[in-house]
Write a structure and sequence with these properties.
about 500 residues, alpha+beta, DNA ligase i, domain 1, D-amino Acid Aminotransferase, Chain A, domain 1, 4 domains
């Protein structure tokens, strides 16, 4: 499929509903088109290359002969891809194929990815540039994306919805696209297989504490999935599915269980001191961002395992949690298995919660004894109530990127000490799409008096005495207030 054909399709989808887009894709019977790269383009997570409006804008502006400060022009156009189209010259298309998306995604670093992007960009006409940019920076805004792919791909290739949904549980969508468009269907993708990342089961806030649950502490670390294949290859994936094996090779997953076991385990990687005591999450940052092994290994880590999805070909994900826990304890005596307790009723759960907080953990995750593992679903429960409720004044705001482009993405917060304000950090969580718009507009018109109600888990203080909020989230604007919480009240909460 040519980039010109792809761009025209994407432009036409702007005037369609999602159902109409799905029908258009399914009814196009031209088998010579590159449907594999078409679907990969719609669903590719190009943010992993590091490319975005911030990293590309100056380079595009230079290509157009404009000054680097073109943010106003982007806003006037309605977004980065629209700006690309509006300011493009009459460059002729050189007939590129859409496999260029995969080429950009496969580059080993942001410099190479940007170089590849600009090389292709300069060989395109205006419409091609618009949609090439929109895909790369994830600003398509026409409804054609992952959901459309999940609906149109099985219809186009005659796969039952049930089988397709099962395959989605246990495989990356890109793997499914590759297999299906190559003509193999999903028959080999219906069970978890070590080496194939699986979206982890997640937790939602518990509305009631009635019932009986396994109460597991909520760790403040990196959610990780540990894979070992039949031939002994080891892979560690983070929550997003990025391969982080090289950053945590010292966990020695090769030695877990028996020598020839193959499995997928779910757990958390946490930073620890020399005595094995859990450290704050920030201490693990060198493991994530360190460029060299020496930097990455400045802090020790350990893995805490709390679930098992498959074991030597057994689909353990379909067992109840109690049985999965017994499986872990039986077959992995040399692994740190979570210390969970079976508790019943609100009083017992709150007691375990208090113990978890005192021990430095975030709260509890509650799992039903007979609950199966549900990849990607928020069906566990978390008991992590906000312990701090503050009214903070907005001291500054930072423009957002990606889906938040055009609106403030985060706000610096402060509380009052006499006639002065003291910062307590920034907030970027808890905003709905409607909140992003309304808070942006309200702050623009009330920059000195914008008050937010904020919930946080705890108030922290570093060695220099700086106050901060742990996991702050936006609750609402306090248009009825003109002054924030006093600093002395914050100090009382801290103590």
């Amino acid at each position: 499929m040519k980039m010109s054909d792809f761009a025209e399709k994407m432009e036409s989808y702007c005037d369609m509903t999602p159902t109409e887009i799905i029908n258009a894709i399914v009814s196009d019977e031209n088998i010579e088109k590159d449907w594999k790269n078409f679907f990969l383009a719609l669903t590719g997570h190009f943010s992993s290359t590091g490319l975005g409006p911030k990293s590309l804008l100056n380079h595009v502006a230079t290509c157009y002969g404009l000054d680097n400060d073109v943010k106003d022009l982007v806003n006037d156009s309605g977004g980065f891809p629209e700006f690309v189209y509006d300011w493009s010259d009459n460059t002729m298309s050189e007939g590129l194929d859409i496999d260029i998306f995969v080429d950009v995604l496969s580059q080993e670093n942001i410099i190479n990815a940007r170089r590849a992007f600009m090389g292709y960009f300069e060989s395109m006409n205006a419409l091609e540039r618009k949609w090439f940019t929109a895909i790369i920076v994830n600003e398509t805004r026409n409804g054609a994306g992952e959901n459309v792919t999940k609906k149109s791909l099985p219809k186009k290739y005659g796969i039952s919805t049930s089988d397709f949904n099962t395959a989605v549980k246990f495989n990356r969508l890109s793997t499914i696209i590759d297999t299906v468009t190559d003509g193999w269907g999903v028959g080999d993708l219906l069970v978890p297989s070590p080496g194939n990342y699986i979206k982890p089961q997640l937790a939602k806030t518990a509305k009631t504490l009635r019932g009986e649950y396994y109460a597991d502490v909520k760790y403040d670390g990196i959610r990780a999935q540990f894979h070992r294949t039949e031939d002994g290859n080891v892979m560690i994936f983070n929550r997003k599915g990025d391969d982080i094996t090289h950053r945590f090779a010292d966990l020695n997953v090769e030695s877990w269980g028996e020598e020839f076991d193959w499995f997928i385990l779910d757990g958390e990687i946490i930073p620890v001191d020399e005595e094995g005591n859990v450290l704050e999450f920030k201490e693990i940052m060198p493991r994530i961002h360190g460029k060299s092994e020496a930097v990455r290994n400045r802090v020790a880590v350990k893995a805490i395992v709390f679930d098992i999805l498959t074991y030597n070909g057994q689909d353990t994900y379909a067992f109840g949690y109690g049985t999965r826990l017994e499986t872990l304890q039986m077959h992995f005596p040399n692994v740190n298995i979570t210390e969970t307790k079976l508790v019943s009723g609100e009083e017992a759960i709150r007691k375990e919660y208090t113990n978890a907080i005192k021990a430095g953990y975030e709260g509890l995750v509650l799992k039903g004894a007979n609950q199966v593992y549900e990849p990607g679903k928020r069906s566990w429960l978390k008991h992590k109530p906000a312990l701090v409720d503050l009214d903070c004044v907005v001291m500054d705001a930072t423009m957002g990127t990606g889906k938040r482009a055009g609106y403030y993405g985060s706000y610096e917060l402060g509380v009052r000490i006499g006639d002065n304000l003291i910062s307590v950090g920034s907030i970027g969580s808890g905003f709905t799409d409607e909140d992003l718009v309304s808070v942006h507009n309200y702050y623009d018109n009330n920059q000195q008096t914008t008050i937010m109600e904020v919930h946080a888990d705890i108030i922290t203080q570093d060695k220099e005495g700086n106050i901060g909020l742990r996991f702050p989230r936006f609750i609402r604007l306090r248009t009825d207030k003109e002054t924030p919480t006093e600093f002395k009240s914050v100090k009382e909460m801290l103590n």
